[in-house]
Amino acid sequence: MQLFVELPPVVLPGPRPMPLVGARGNLIRFLAKPVQAMLRLQRQYGDVAPLTRDDPGWLLAIGSAHNREVLTNGDRFHNLADHPVKLPAGSAAAKFSLSLVNQNGLAHQHGRRLIQPLFAKHRLATYARMTADTTARTLDRLAVGQQLDAHSLCVELSLSVALRCLFDVDATAAGGPSDDLGELVLDYLSRVFSPANMLLPVNVPGTPFRRFLTTSERLGDRVEQMIRERRERSAGDDMLSALITAYASEPDQRSSEAVDDELLGQVAMLLIAGHDTSAHTLAWTLFLLTQHPEIQAALIDEVDGVDVHDHAAVMALPLLDRVIKESMRLLSAVALLFFRRSTDSFTLGGHELPAGATVILSPLISHRDESVFPEPRRFVPDRWLSCSPGPYEYMPYGAGPRLCVGMSLGAQIQRVILVMLLRRFRVSLAAGARVSYTTRGVLMGPLPGMTVDLLARDRGGAPAGKRVRGNIHELVDLS
After folding, report:
1. Which cofactor does it need (predicted)?
2. Across-strand partners of 360?
3. Residue 461 belongs to what domain range?
4. What is the CATH classification number for the domain harbouring 260?
5. Would the N or C end of the chain have less CB density within 10 A of its end CB?
6. How does residue 339 score in pLDDT terms, banded at 50, 70 and 90?
């Protein structure tokens, strides 16, 4: 994709262009710290604000009306999810872009039709059993009195579950076949959204971009190996088996190589996107529970005795549902949606805007509308006893025709893992912990340092209102 687009000026109040580098500098500065930038732009310029004064190239649009306008008009607003720099043709990094999140129009409809059955109700029941079994083996290694980084634990839990559901491999077995795959996924995620790749996309030895391409090739080779092995054996209950069957049974006029490249892209998307979002959501939820021990205690009481292998039983827990909904509202793992670029002129917030304008939407900021969510910076799970926001007011999984295809599985995984964790431990924020948020691509998660103590369930957690260090106070009222 072309990241920077020169468009005719439109009268739009906004920040001045940066000296020397102009609007490009404003965009790079935004991408470096998008959450802080969105909060500042909305506060200073309102719900429709350009990144650069009078430049319609990139605009932030906040609120349900703008969310609805953009997300329901897929023909006018195309998903702009490609890597921001040109990738070598035929490279694994380029093939990874051949996935549902990058597709538009008929290609997106075709891909969604093939992937949607992976999340059918009967399959969710199978994934619930896989999630419970995998999580139990990970939690068996933990003990009361242990201190650890909450986000690292949640990454381990969610990635192990993703590998089991997608490939039916056991990531909890030391030295098992998935060890290198899990490490490759984490290495890839650390590099794909690196600002250095965008600022210096030079494919020469020693550069961050070359290391990103090398990691992508290693991950691509490993996933292709998994695909080949799965084709050579009987289909199982895992997602990869179902996806291979779906592609094999679908008439396609393209070459087998083109179909295989797309299959690789779809598998990589399912592996990378799903686990990262769940890990962030779980980590934020654990943090919020440490700050509200009375809610954590009530939740511990609720989860006792529930059959974690039973999809319906887990999804029917009312307090658990409210806690996770509120966590995903207050600290949405999806800070902003993939950018949308207009194919035609349009009107937004009373401004006439040209084709080629790119619109930024944010679930995180939209979830702070006081008219929908009173006291929006506070963690109040019981607001969901009476709160019924519309689909464009509360959208942790996006909204409209591009609503996250795997949202049902993500919701289930988060609930099963949290139930199993709270059936063993009470979680308390450790002394000296630092809770700060950061963004990687469109996702928002904790920085290292969110250390927690695993306590016996009959012991009290950290008192509510305990002073927490870190920039989390920019987003959450902990008073």
Report:
1. heme
2. 60
3. 22-474
4. 1.10.630.10
5. C
6. very high
pLDDT of residue 175: 53
- The pairing of beta strand 351-353 with beta strand 147-149: unpaired
Residues at the binding site are 404
- Interstrand relation of 147-149 and 77-80 (parallel, antiparallel or unpaired): unpaired
Condensed to tens digits (0 to 9), the pLDDT of residues 13-28 reads: 999 999 988 998 999 8
Q: Please give the annotated binding residues for heme, written as ranges.
A: 404
C-alpha span between 356 and 76 (Å, rounded): 10
- pLDDT surpassing 80 at residue 199: no
pLDDT band at 5 (very low <50, low <70, confident <90, very high): confident
Q: Is residue 17 part of a domain?
A: no
User: Would you say residue 399 lies in a domain?
Assistant: yes
What is d(CA 391, CA 447) in angstroms, rounded to the nearest whole number?
Answer: 30
Residues 223 and 220: their CA atoms lie apart, in Å, by: 5
In a domain, 5, yes or no: no
CB 284 within 8 A of CB 334: no
Taking CB atoms within 8 Å and a gap of at least 24, the contacts of 206-210 are 209/85
Distance of alpha carbon 36 from alpha carbon 424, whole angstroms: 37
- If you search the block for the tokens 């088996």, which residue do you land on? 241
Strand partners, 389: none
